[in-house]
Amino acid sequence: MIKVTLEDITYTESLLLKPGQTFDEERLRFIKNFKTLDLQAVPGSGKTTALLAKLLILEKHLPLEKNRGILVLSHTNAAVNEIKNRIGHHCPKLFSHPNFVGTIQSFTDNFLAIPAYLTKYKQKPVRIDDEIYNETISRIFYYNKKDFKEQEKKNAIYYNTNFKVLFSLRFVFKNGSFNLVKSISGDPLVIKTPPKRLKKFTKNEIDRIAEWLYKTKLKVLETGILNYDDAYLLADVILTEIPSYRGLIQNRFKFVFVDEMQDMEKHQFDLLERIFADDNCTSFYQRLGDVNQSIYSKSLDTEEIWKQRTEKIFINGSHRLSKPIANIVEKLALTSTEVQGRMKNNDGSDLTIKPLLICYDIERITDVIPIFSDEIKKLIDKELIIPNEGNKYEAIGWRKHHDHINKTCISDYWPNFKTNGKLKKIDYDTLEDYLKFIENGKQTLEANRKSILNSLNRILYIEGIRDEYSRVFTISKLIKYFKVLPNNEYDLLKLNLYNWSLAIENDTINIVLDEIKTYIPHFLNCFSRQINYSKDFIDESSSNGQVANPDESAQYFDKNGIRVNISTVHSVKGQTHTATLYLETFFSKGAGNYESERLQNQVLGIPIKEHLDNYKGGSVDKIIQSARMAYVGFSRPTHFLCFAVESSRANKLFKEIDKNDWDVIQILKTELSDS
Q: Are residues 566 and 669 in the same domain?
C-alpha cells in the first residue's frame, strides 16, 4: 500500500493551496487512505482538491507494480478538465497509458462498449452520440421491413405518433437476448392501443408493432450508430458473455476514484458496482461526493450509494461557507450532515453577514434582482464584502421558463432571460453553422479542421454516400479514402483544410464559406456524385443567428460596477459565488408548488430529516427534490445568501423567522420597507 510522507503532503500543499495554507486533519485522513472507502463531503469542503493531492502523490509511484493503472472518473467533461488543468503538467504519467482519467461515459465507451461491439460485429461502432442516433433511427423507422404489410407499417407509425417512444426506446440484455424497454433502467415496453383509436389493436397487430420497433432498434445498432445508453447495454453484454472480462478491468486498474458519485444515474452506478464492488475485487475503489447534492440523477435513490460501505470518511468543514450560511444549509441536508462553516474574512475574523429573505409583491417581481444588487453595494460600502476581480454574484432558479402566467419562473424575475443555446454539437443544420460553432468554442486549427471535415461528412451523409461496407463516413474514413485517390486529391484536400482553418482563425468565415461551396462539386465528384439532396444544407443561411450573437445583456444585470449573472441552479453546481440570490420558482404540484412552501420549516430552523421523520402528508419526493435543489443553491456563496419569496407564500416566514439567523426585507407594491 502507498505510504504518504510529510514531504508528500508539503509538496501537494505547495501546488494546490495558497501560501500559508495546509490540509487539516479531515482532509489528511482521506489523502493518506488508499483502501476501498466512501468520502461524504459537504459543499466547499475541498474534496476535489484532496483528491488531486492523492493523485499527485500517486504520480510519484508510477508505474505501479505489474504495470497496473489508475482510473479517475467524474460525471462531466468540465470536472475532468478541471483535474487535467490543475495537475496535468505535474502528472505526465497519470494522463498516459495504462491510466485513464475521464467521464463515466468515456470509460464505458472505451473499455466496454467498443470492445463488446468489436466482439459481436467484428468492427468498431461508427458513432456513439444521441443526436446522430435519433436522426438515424427516425430515418430507419420509416423504411419498409421484410415480410411486413403496408397496414402493419401504418399501425407502427400511428402508434409512435401517439406515444412518441422511438427516441426513448432501449434494449436490455436478458437471458442472452435483447429486449425492448421504455427507457434505460425502465420497465418493459408494453404495446397498447392509443386512446383516441376507436378500434383496439388485435393481439397480432400489437405483436407486429412490437416487432417493427424491435427490428428498427436492432438495425440502428447493427449500422454502428449508438446512443450513449447503448454503451451500457454493450457493457452488460460483454460482462455477461465474458465473465472474466470484469477481472481484466480490475487487473488493469489498481486504484479507482469516482468523483461526484451522487450525480451518477442508476445504470452508471450499477455498472461501477458490478465491476468494482465486491469482496473479491482486486481494485481499491473510492467513491467521493455529497448525497445531498444529487440534483441530476432521476432514477437512483442516492441513499443506495453510501449505505453499503463499512469504511466511510466524512469531511464536515466547509472552507466556502460562513457560519451563518452553513447554519441554513445544514437544515436542508437529507442525511443529517453537520456543516461547519469555516470561511473567514481576510483578516481571519468570522464572516457575520446574515442571509437575507426578500419578500416581494408579485407586481414588483422584476425589482428583486436590482434590489439584490443594491444590497451587495451596501455590504461593499460597509467593507463587509471587499471588491475583487474574482468576486462573482449570481441570481439562480430551478425553472427557466413556463407557459402558464401564474407559475413563476426565472424569466418572470428577468424577462430578457434566455439560456445560451451555443452548446457543443457534432452535426448542424447548415454548412454555415459548422463554421460558426467550433467545438468547445475554441477556434484552433485542429478544432477548425475537424469541424470542416464534419461538414463534408454531413454532405456525404445527406447524399446517401456510404463506404465500401455501406456505413457512414467518419473523419478517419474520409481521410483514408482520399489518400488512395489519384491526381493528388489528398494533397489538395489537405491544403484546403489548412487554408480554411487558418482563415477561420482570422475570422474570415464568409470567405471560407464561399470557397468550400466552390469546392463541394469537385469533392462530390471524387465519389462520382453531384449535388442533389444536400443543396439546401449547403446554401441555406445559419438558422442560429441569434445564438451566434447572443444578447449578452439578457444574461446579467449590471449596476454600479456590480454584475449579477442570471442562471439556473443546475448550471452553477460546483461553482463558488461571493453572493447568491436564490429565486423560488414553480416546480410541479405536491406539498405545495414552490420551494418556500415545501421547505418552510427548514427556513424556520427545523432540519429536513427531523421534519420528514414526522411528516404525515404526501409528495415526499417533491419535498426531497426541493431540498436537494435548495441545498445546492444555498451552498454556493461565501459571503451573502438571499432567498426571494413572493409575499403570498412568505406570510408565515415573515412572522416566525428567527431574526438571529435571517434579515428580512419586503418589496411592496408602492414602497420598499426594511424589517
A: yes
Q: Write the CB contacts of 490 (distance below 8 Å, at least 6 apart in sequence).
A: 479, 482, 483
Measured CA distances, 625 to 137, 260, 295, 333, 434 (Å): 33, 18, 7, 12, 38
pLDDT of residue 301: 56
SS3 annotation, 313-359 = EEECEECCCCHHHHHHHHCCCCCCCCCEECCECCCCCECCCCCEEEE
Write out pLDDT tens, residues 287-303. 999 988 887 655 455 56
User: What's the rounded Cα separation, in Å, for the pair 329 and 344?
Assistant: 17
- Residue-wise pLDDT for 131-188, tens only, equals 899 999 999 999 999 999 999 999 999 999 999 999 999 999 999 999 999 999 889 9
Bridge partners, residue 69, by sequence: 253
Task: Provide the H-helix boundaries in 43-200.
Answer: 47-59, 77-87, 104-108, 114-121, 130-141, 150-163
Q: In whole angstroms, how large is the CA radius of gyration of the chain?
A: 28
Q: Is residue 118 situated within a structural domain?
A: no
Residues 6+ apart with CB under 8 A from 330: 337, 338, 339, 607
Task: For residue 178, give Cα distances in angstroms to 173, 303, 472, 530.
Answer: 5, 30, 24, 40
Amino acid at 278: D
Residues 413 and 444 in one domain: no
Which of helix, strand or coil describes residue 563? Answer: strand
Domain-terminating residue out of 199, 226, 253: 226
Reduced to 3 states, what is the DSSP secondary structure of residue 303? helix
Residues lower than pLDDT 50 in the chain = 299, 420-424, 440-443, 545-553, 672, 675
Is residue 235 situated within a structural domain? no
Residues 652 and 611 in one domain: yes
Same domain, 458 and 521: yes
Same domain for 459 and 493, yes or no, is yes
**What is the number of domains present in the chain?**
4
Q: Are residues 191 and 300 in the same domain?
A: no
Q: In whole angstroms, what is the distance from residue 388 CA to residue 376 CA?
A: 13
Paired with 182 in beta bridges are: none
Grid coordinates belonging to 587: 416546480
Claim to verify: residue 185 and residue 74 sit in the same structural domain? no
As a whole number of angstroms, the distance between CA 581 and CA 332 comes to: 17
Residues 102 and 251 in one domain: yes
DSSP, collapsed to helix, strand or coil, labels residue 675 as coil
Q: Are 540 and 357 in contact (CB under 8 A)?
A: no
Q: Which domain holds residue 586?
A: 323-420+554-674
